[in-house]
Amino acid sequence: MCRYNKPLKVLFSTGLGILLVGLVVGIVVTQPVMAGPSPKMDQARLLQVEQTARLIASDGVAGDTFGWSVAVDGDTIAVGAPGDEAGRGSVYVFVKPEGGWRGTLTETARLVPSGGADNSQFGYSVAVNGSTIIIGAIYDNSRKGAAYIFVKPAGGWHGTLTETARLTASDGTVWDSFGTAVALSHNTAIVSASKDEVGGKIGQGSAYVFTQPAGGWHGTLTETAKLVASDGAEGDDFGRSAGISGDTVVIGAPVFSANRSGSAYVFIRPSGGWAGTLTETAKLVASDSGGAGDFFGVSAGISGNTIVSGAAFHNSNQGALYIFTEPAGGWHETLTETARLTASDGNWNDRLGVSAGISGDTVVGGADLFDNGKGAAYRFDRPQDGWSGVLTETARLTATEAMANDNFGYAVAVSGSTTAIGAPNSNGSQGVVYVFVTYTPIYLPVVLKNP
Q1: Is 5 exposed, middle or buried (0-12, 13-18, 19+ CB in 10 A)?
Q2: Helix residue ranges, H only, 146-221
Q3: What is the distance between the alpha carbons of residues 243 and 224, in angstroms, rounded to a whole number?
Q4: Which residues pair with 362 in a beta bridge?
Q5: Helices of type H across 273-429
Q6: Cβ 374 vs Cβ 326: under 8 Å
């Protein structure tokens, strides 16, 4: 990309004579020509998003559901294919090539559990943080569920690799769905069990905290803490979604309340560390969640002091995303959103918010039933005056080759300028993931002058 500190003088004429003299215009160097921006224009609205790559499994076949789950951190993308090999499942790792995310790419590494069994659904959930990847397998461990930690080898993500650690719940039972959602931040891992029976309440759900031992992620490990909702009830599905950033955890419970309006819960690491059974410090609800079946909390994510939660069935299944910004006094009591995000072209049954990702000031939400199931994703960027009111997208993302029922947007992830979006039902449910790169156009003043 070329950058100039002073006006570029461009001299040109035609057989008809000099066209322009001394006219200054704005030119976009990296992408199509655009008019120069107004100084008062919100910079988020100037961002351009381009689909640059398509990720597939080198050994992919119909039914793999590659793209069911997806995670990205920096130059690494991890994609879950829980239907691979008769449901044993696998996860594929893609490392950004020197030339960037371009063209059709296959994995650099394939991750599998050392003792996987048919229908374990390894890859049902996935998260990546730095050199560590965590993967959920909800029917592994005699149908109790398990999660697996993979640490990048010294030689990098290459070949077929097995886990360095296996995580299980100390009180796990059959059909807990341990591994429904996973999250990772530095030395702390979160694994949810959305069907766990808590205090005799079937399907209330819970989440487990694992802290990296002094010797690293090795062997078979059990939790250091268990997270539950103080007002949990049977069938809440607490743990359908999970996110962690530093010492703050968010857990979604989309079936909470008799009308399934849903909620999310915030947990802060105690001063003594993650230990014992803990309840939330704050509960998040949507201010307009009176409608039955919104399923607020079906997706959730956190970055710094900002939380996003999706309600995919809000407003006749059109869906919406809700933003919560940490109050000055911290995450306490019951809180409603600071902003609600909707699609400007939203329609019934789009399911915006079926998936959600957040990175800094950027939120991406999936709408996997948009346009007869072709699917779409929507990018939202924090306005200059902050997250407030009802906001629409800065960009809508669609796949160039999308077909009906591909379910593009079923899974989304974002890290910096990179967004990864899964379409697990593409090509006979073989699945594909699309990579979008965001850039800010550079406007250069150009002087057209008589030679």
Answers
A1: exposed
A2: none
A3: 17
A4: 359, 381
A5: 314-317, 370-373, 426-429
A6: no
Q: Cα 6 to the chain's mean position, in Å?
A: 40
- 361 CB-side CA count, 13 A: 11
pLDDT tens for 168-195 read 999 999 999 999 999 999 999 999 999 9
Residue 337 near residue 287, CB atoms below 8 Å = yes
CA distances from 79 to 17, 111, 150, 434 (A): 58, 10, 14, 11
Q: What angle do CA 334, 336, 340 make, to 5 degrees?
A: 160
CATH topology for 8-448 is Methylamine Dehydrogenase; Chain H (2.130.10)
Give the span between the Cα atoms of 368 and 407, in whole angstroms.
5
CA–CA dist 245, 183 (Å, integer): 9
Tokens (6 digits) for 138: 């909800």
Residue 188 CB contacts under 8 Å (≥ 6 apart), including other chains: 209, 210, 211, 212, 244, 269, 274
Q: How far apart are the first and last CA of the chain?
A: 27
Under DSSP, the state recorded for 384 is T
Distance between CA atoms of 342 and 389, rounded to whole angstroms? 11
pLDDT in tens, 53-89: 999 999 999 999 999 999 999 999 999 999 999 999 9
Residue found by looking up tokens 């807990």 in the block? 176
Q: What are the residue boundaries of the structural domains of the chain, listed by start?
A: 8-448
Question: Could you give the CA distance from residue 253 to residue 229 in angstroms, rounded to a whole number?
Answer: 9
> What was the pLDDT predicted at 439?
81
